[in-house]
Design a protein that fits this description.
About 40% of the residues are buried. The protein has helices at about 10-35, 35-65, 70-85, 90-105, 115-120, 120-135, 140-150, 150-155, 160-180, 185-205, 230-235, 255-260, 270-280, 290-300, 315-325; strands at about 110, 210-215. It has 15 helices and 2 strands. Helix 2 (about 35-65) packs antiparallel against helix 3 (about 70-85) and helix 2 (about 35-65) packs across helix 4 (about 90-105).
């Protein structure tokens, strides 16, 4: 079967609506940046950024095969969306493989040891924390830069070199054309891309207290592989709104992470109901938005090494309580788009 077929009639409605929104926001954002003048710049940036955010979360849906009936068709959609949110330099297969290992092994499977990198390059670390103080996501920009040059930097992906070069040339030519036609449109795109990065890392930063393990291309497997009880005890749900569920649609309900890990094949529109079925109606089962914002602001220069003064290292239920009272640094640079 070569026709994209949704898994269910309900899925056809919800997925189609979200995809149409993402594409409309993306196109409208570019149009406003080119044609909207000064008045259209800010709404253009916001629409473009949010279109890319929804596209990114749809790649996550495709990784779990929640959209179409076959892996092939989910992969085809993800490849298209990768061009929208800038994750197309590597392969969707790499994204899906790394992310599914995260679920199966209950681990943050990595190749790039960023803590070791910053220890070996203290000047880069100082520059990164300086920029982070101004809310510029320098750590994530580094990670996404590695993604752009993935086949040049990661030896195990050298076989993707021709693909990597082709994508760099195509996207580079398109960005050069934008810069020539309208430099302010390019500036708007850069800001929109940073907004996408910030949102993705903001949501991801509190969803687990897993340590990261540099075993992407070999090494010891986590001792917690397959331990569903441990998985739930170390998974958390930083949502945007408990009272108004529709607000969470802004991030395709990605904050309902306990429900997602309990049933990874559940599509995004089922997660709020699933969370309440599994964990009840008590808002103490989630991390609300205000403490998330406080932690993001207060510890923005400490998230690389989690070395903020006065913060204790905690895990499991203690991690949840600390997050609810804004007493954690949170994670940094975690993203399913950066598959290394």
């Amino acid at each position: 079967m070569n026709t994209w077929t949704f898994k269910s009639a309900k899925g056809a409605r919800w997925h189609t609506g979200a995809l149409l929104y993402a594409l409309t926001a993306y196109v409208a954002g570019w149009w406003l940046l080119f044609e909207g003048g000064g008045i259209g710049f800010l709404p253009g940036v916001l629409l473009l950024g949010h279109g890319m955010i929804i596209a990114a979360y749809f790649i996550h849906e495709c990784a779990h095969n929640t959209v179409f009936t076959t892996n092939k068709h989910n992969g085809q959609l993800a490849n298209i969306l990768g061009w929208i949110c800038g994750s197309c330099y590597g392969t969707f297969k790499d994204i899906r493989t790394k992310h599914l290992r995260h679920h199966v092994e209950n681990d943050d499977v990595m190749w790039f040891d960023y803590e070791d990198f910053f220890r070996r390059h203290p000047r880069v670390y100082k520059l990164t924390t300086f920029l982070e103080w101004f809310y510029i996501p320098a750590h994530d920009i580094l990670m996404h830069s590695i993604m752009v040059f993935t086949a040049f930097i990661i030896p195990e992906r050298r076989n993707q070199l021709s693909r990597n070069v082709t994508v760099i040339c195509i996207r580079g030519a398109l960005l050069a054309a934008v810069a020539t036609l309208n430099p302010f449109a390019l500036l708007g795109y850069m800001i929109a891309y940073m907004i996408m990065i910030i949102v993705l890392r903001f949501v991801d930063g509190l969803e687990h207290d897993y340590p990261y393990n540099t075993n992407l291309f070999g090494g010891p497997i986590s001792e917690h592989k397959g331990d569903l009880v441990w998985e739930q005890a170390h998974t958390f749900s930083p949502i945007l709104s408990w009272r108004y569920e529709c607000v969470n649609w802004l991030i395709l309900n990605f904050g309902y992470h306990n429900a997602h890990h309990a049933k990874p094949t559940a599509p995004w529109y089922e997660l709020p109901t699933l969370h309440r079925e599994l964990f009840g109606e008590d808002p103490q089962t989630v991390i609300r938005l205000w403490p998330q914002l406080v932690m993001y602001h207060r510890y923005r220069t400490y998230r690389i090494f989690h070395d903020a003064p006065g913060i204790r290292s905690v895990s499991g239920p203690a991690f949840l309580k600390a997050a609810q009272s804004a007493q954690l640094t949170g994670g940094n640079a975690a993203s399913f788009l950066t598959a290394f």
